[in-house]
Amino acid sequence: MSRELKRLLRFADPKVSHDGSCLAVRVETVDGSNLDLEIPLNEIGTLVQFFVSIADHVGNEAAPSPIEAPTEGVTWSPIPVRGLGFGAGRDASETILMVQLAGFQLAFSLDSSKLASLADDVARIARTLSAKPSGKPS
Prior knowledge:
Strand order of the largest sheet: 1-2-3
Shape: extended
Radius of gyration: 19 Å
Distance between the termini: 53 Å
Largest sheet: 3 strands, antiparallel
Number of strands: 6
Strand content: 25-35%
């Protein structure tokens, strides 16, 4: 089966449905064609994880630890986190980090044997950031 591919230009004109259960977004392509897409809010996490899994599959390797956030030349679009939690993974070697966002969760797989080291890294970074009045590392 042959597919006619169109290159994505951007997502535009986001709107929440009247009943608050869906997000409508216009998908714009380079050739000027558009698609209006309605996504149930409870599927947004699945959609994000789908794209992240694809990116990982095509060769984006996990960043080395610790991750240093670039401070110049990068424009971030932070997503407010509403909560964090941990849960049992698919087997004893995996722990799931759940991140609660607005109306959905994202699940991240962590190596259970590295949790203590990760906790130390998070605590160190939190102490550093909370000690800086600007909230930005130097």
